[in-house]
């Protein structure tokens, strides 16, 4: 369940928490006040109704990807509950933790966007998408978790139900921008490309799915898409 070569990194855990906590405080003071006034924005943001803070929840979600564990439930129940309880004195049960995850989706999204803004614009970039399957096709009508958000889409391997993550990276592997869409959003969707390529310049390489009528607009901003 865990890569034996991975060891607990206290400094990394603390670094992640500090960055997450600073961002949460900034977002709450500058952005969330407006969201609370207008319930139509992001469905009306609400802080998690639990003892753990948003930054603590975000820290565990992010640190999991550095931990070497392959299963989040095992990571939480075996490692976090036993080894990190002193760092998180108000730790929730695993079931309760999963119930409040949706409350940090917005700050996590903003956190990721901030990290993307730190990536180096080198003039060479690559664009691609990857499907995120949330359930088997035969269970679509029974699926409730992402009902109304996920959608049926088609990839090179066939039909699926879920989402797509669209990534733009440089040749160093740094993520320049990204977006998460329902599975039925085409790779060359105009509004999607404007969002994730709006600040990219130079040469951008992608497959034929990224052929777009917007090439003139992108060329004027200094970007040439090569498919």
From TrEMBL:
Transposase DDE domain: from which residue to which, for each copy?
121-227
Q: Record's Pfam families?
A: DDE_Tnp_1_3
InterPro entries found in the cross-reference section: Tnp_DDE_dom (IPR025668)
Listed name of the protein:
Transposase DDE domain-containing protein
Organism encoding this protein: Chryseobacterium mucoviscidosis
């Amino acid at each position: 369940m865990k890569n034996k070569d991975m060891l607990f990194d206290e400094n990394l855990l603390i670094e992640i928490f500090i960055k997450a906590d600073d961002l949460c405080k900034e977002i709450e003071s500058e952005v969330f006040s407006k969201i609370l006034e207008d319930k139509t924005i992001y469905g009306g943001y609400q802080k998690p109704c639990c003892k753990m803070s948003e930054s603590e929840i975000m820290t565990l979600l992010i640190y999991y990807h550095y931990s070497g564990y392959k299963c989040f439930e095992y990571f939480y129940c075996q490692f976090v509950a036993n080894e990190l309880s002193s760092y998180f004195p108000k730790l929730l049960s695993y079931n309760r933790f999963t119930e409040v995850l949706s409350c940090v989706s917005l700050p996590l999204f903003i956190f990721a966007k901030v990290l993307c803004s730190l990536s180096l614009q080198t003039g060479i970039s690559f664009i691609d998408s990857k499907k995120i399957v949330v359930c088997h096709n035969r269970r679509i009508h029974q699926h409730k978790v992402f009902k109304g958000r996920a959608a049926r889409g088609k990839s090179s391997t066939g039909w699926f139900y879920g989402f797509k993550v669209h990534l733009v990276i440089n040749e160093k592997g740094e993520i320049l921008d990204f977006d998460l869409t329902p599975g039925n959003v085409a790779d060359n969707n105009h509004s999607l490309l404007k969002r994730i390529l709006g600040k990219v310049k130079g040469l951008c390489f992608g497959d034929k799915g990224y052929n777009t009528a917007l090439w003139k607009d992108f060329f004027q901003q200094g970007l040439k898409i090569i498919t």
